[in-house]
Amino acid sequence: MKKIIFTAISFLSIYSCSDFLYSEPVEKVSITEQLGTKEGMLVALNGAYYQLRSTYFTESAFVYGDLLAGNLTFSPSASTNTISIDASVTNIYQFDDQKESSDMAAFYSSCYQLINNINLILQYADQLPDASSAEISEIKAEALALRAFTNFYLYKHYGQNYTYTSDASHLGIVYNTAPLKVGIDYPTRKTVAENFVSLENDIQQAISLFQPNHAIPVGQKKNFMNIDAAKLLAAEIALWKNDWQKAIDYSNDIIQNSSYTLTSSNEIGTNWAASESIFEIANTNENEFPVTVLYSFTDKGRPNYVASEDIYNLFSANDQRKNLFETQNLVTKISGVSYTLPYHFTKKYKIKSESLIYRLGLAYFIRAEASLKSGNSAQALNDVNIIRNRAGLTNLSSVNLDILLEEKKKRICF
């Protein structure tokens, strides 16, 4: 995977993000030539993975949820000992992000550039003269799943809840299923109901097309969109649509019929996600992972973000997940007076720095929430207790939505 990632960089440099939207760019290698062979197609597909990685793990996008949830605050500057809001997330942190000056503007445009690149792959995949039908099916499966994932990711940020109107007729996002030509095509937003029809169509078609081997012949299954990642995405889509039974069915399939296991209690502090990883994009040759510099305290520097007292205090002393924090006492200047104060940094990405996107624990929380909302509180309680037991905590005797979401918050923060 690592070698091909750098091949993909070369491909993306041939076509700048905007130029690649043209049907026939003026560079030396046209799109029809690039996507006219299996080798060129795989380079393009890997370019899509690389672009997803650089989009998903962009600072403003990656910290977005934790900032809005109150999980993050900021560390004092190493040079001035004062605390300030990171300039790249000021609007998000202050709940004042505007379309004219959005901290998420680059994320938004990058997502749609990625979708357009994927649509070009899907447009040309069936015409490959040197690929078998199984290879074409796998390329299409991964591309369709990536398209659904990216659109769903956009919807989470820019769409109202499915039930905002009784028939989901309120506007959602633009959901493109064909390549656009710059200056010619101007797509419009679809309703949320239409968005979910497209999401379900893409993910169900992807699931039907997956083959035993991933398309790019290097790396591991988890480095690429795979059938288990697609089913977990399908479960998440169903949960957001309030389709409780479908969310339960997809989650059950992953929990009961896959080889993934929850990380054992005694490994949480040292290997918190290895056995659970369903989808993670490989890092560069130097194992560089952009989130490390956002969160990990090292001898070479301190990150901007630390855990808020709110999230840190949710973890009891006997919770094994509290071992994923390290406390540093840092000089902090407040109104001109210096104090030495404790700051809690997550160690997650010092321990494990892979570009993790999906892991097994999410399937348990999806099943628990769907079960609770469909009236099966016993199943929800069982799933929550499985997660708690793994963290070294005792069983709860009952569960409600607030308790479930608090357990989920502790599970997936940062």
Offer a quick outline of the entry.
This protein has 414 residues and is mostly helical. The chain is globular and about 70 Å long.
Structure description:
The protein has 414 residues and is mainly α. The protein has 16 helices and six strands. It has helices spanning 2-14, 31-34, 38-56, 59-68, 90-93, 105-125, 133-158, 192-209, 227-240, 244-257, 290-295, 309-312, 348-351, 361-373, 377-390, 401-412, and strands spanning 72-74, 277-281, 305-307, 325-334, 337-346, 355-359. The strands form three sheets. It has a two-stranded antiparallel ribbon with strand order 1-3. A two-stranded antiparallel sheet has the order 2-6. The chain has a two-stranded antiparallel ribbon with strand order 4-5. A hairpin with a 2-residue loop joins strand 4 and strand 5. Helix 3 (38-56) packs parallel to helix 7, helix 7 (133-158) packs antiparallel against helix 8 and helix 9 (227-240) runs antiparallel to helix 10. The protein is globular and about 70 Å long. 42% of the residues are buried. Residues 1-27 have low confidence and may be disordered.
**Largest beta-sheet details:** 2 strands, antiparallel
Kindly state the number of beta strands. 6
Q: How big a fraction of the residues is strand?
A: 5-15%
Radius of gyration: 22 Å
Given helix and strand content, the structural type is: mainly alpha
Q: Extract low-pLDDT stretches.
A: 1-27
Mean pLDDT over the residues: 89
Helix content: 40-55%
Going across the biggest sheet, name each strand in turn. 1-3
General shape: globular
The CA-CA distance between the termini, in Å, is 26 Å
So how many helices?
A: 16
The string of secondary-structure elements, in order, is HHHHEHHHHHHEHEHEEHEHHH
